[in-house]
Amino acid sequence: MIRHIHIDNYRSAKNISLELSQLNIIFGPNGCGKSNIYKAIHLLSGAASGQLSSMLSEEGGIQNTMWSGSERSSHRARRLCLSCETDDFDYELQVGFPDKLPYPTQFDLDPIVKEEHIWLTGFNRRPCSQVLKRKNQAVFLTNVHGEKVTHAGSIYENESFFGQLGEPHLYPEVSQVRETIRNWRFYHEFDVSRKSGIRQPQVGFRSPILSGDGNNLAAAFQTIVEIGDIELLTEILESAFPECAFFCINDHARFSMMMNRKGLSRPLESSEMSDGTLRFLCLAVALLSPRPPQFIALNEPENSLHPQMLPALAKLISEASRYSQIWLTSHSPELANLISKHGVFQLYELSMTNGQTNIHQL
Ligand SMILES: Nc1ncnc2c1ncn2[C@@H]1O[C@H](COP(=O)(O)OP(=O)(O)OP(=O)(O)O)[C@@H](O)[C@H]1O
Ligand SMILES: [Mg+2]
């Protein structure tokens, strides 16, 4: 479980620290920084899969991602710092701009990993507990024999060390941290527009995990039917859509979702379903994964759902929180109220002052 997250200089999250519980709900007005914190944690996970530079470029580059408030140290001197402490390890990633280079280059705004550290939890970051220490391209790590060694190969400066870790069996602690962080899952705004993959048949394979874009919805649904908790999925879908029944068909391994509705003489295809129906299906299939991850983050999942769907969504979230730690950003006090009927959670309220997100634990 993630115990603590710290973020410096990621958009409006200039300096944010939070203690996490099993189920965490984050509220706040528009523009206060809820999605920024979600994206910062997503970036940390992406870095563990070797996607730091590409994710930052999708966000407009490090020059846009770095907190843009005024401060004495220059913009370029600052660092974007992301860290998380779990039951087992404490990981920190610091990203900044390139130093002044002695040769001409157009890549002078590339993100550069300045420092990267892993400590084992419970030692207050003492040197004896450090299993990875990176300063620029120099990496020191602890091997399978407990020896501190210098990494021999050259390191790509635009990426986390995790994406470049060869021979993971020689560095079991470091590779375990990588596996943990890159298996976190993030779901935000499923695209259900007319041409989206969710509305088209997709070549499927057994999928215990819904992809972030939801395009393998039908295959992931069928995987729950075959090896997951189909009773719970059916119960939740019946309470959300009382006159409907969902099923998956496949034509030469092209999987599609179908829906029978009382009063209609033929089933409807996913291309004919409503936006909210498809989004809810995606959430249900993501949260009832037969292979629950350690951590699931949902960004504003109630968007485009009618309030009458909220009891079913609350049940889904509380069921998922039995197996996975949940991070939920939301605009809906009603959703939090409904989740509270199923169990306890930690509530945070965000606000914005002087261009910085502030966090209050309620
Ligand atoms: N580089 C930056 N430096 C400082 N602030 C930034 C930066 N980039 C974006 N912001 C601020 O972040 C805020 C947007 O935050 P975010 O998208 O997380 O809001 P939100 O709470 O999710 O809002 P909503 O409820 O509308 O989705 C905006 O107010 C914007 O001014
Ligand atoms: Mg948002």
What's the end-to-end separation, in Å? 20 Å
On the 0-100 scale, what is the average pLDDT?
A: 93
Largest sheet: 8 strands, antiparallel
Low-confidence stretches: none
What Rg is obtained from the alpha carbons, in whole angstroms? 22 Å
How would you spell out the order of helices and strands?
EEEHHHEEEEEEHEEHHEEEHEHEHEE
What class would the helix/strand composition place it in?
A: alpha+beta
Number of strands: 18
What topology, given as strand order, has the largest sheet? 2-1-4-5-6-7-8-9
Number of structurally distinct domains: 2
The number of helical segments is: 9
- Ligand species: adenosine-5'-triphosphate, magnesium ion
> Proportion of β residues?
25-35%
Q: Share of helix among residues?
A: 25-40%
Shape: globular
Structural description of this entry:
The structure is a single chain. This protein folds into two domains: 2-184 and 355-361; 192-292, no CATH class. It is built from nine helices and 18 strands. It has helices at 34-48, 52-58, 62-65, 172-182, 217-227, 230-240, 275-287, 310-320, 333-340; strands at 2-10, 13-19, 23-27, 80-86, 89-96, 112-120, 130-135, 138-142, 148-150, 185-188, 202-203, 244-251, 254-261, 268-269, 295-299, 325-329, 346-353, 356-361. The strands form three sheets. The protein has an eight-stranded antiparallel beta sheet with strand order 2-1-4-5-6-7-8-9. A six-stranded mixed beta sheet has the order 10-15-16-3-17-18, sandwiched between helices. A hairpin with a 2-residue loop joins strand 7 and strand 8. It is globular and about 70 Å long. The structure holds adenosine-5'-triphosphate and magnesium ion. Adenosine-5'-triphosphate (ATP) binds next to helix 1.
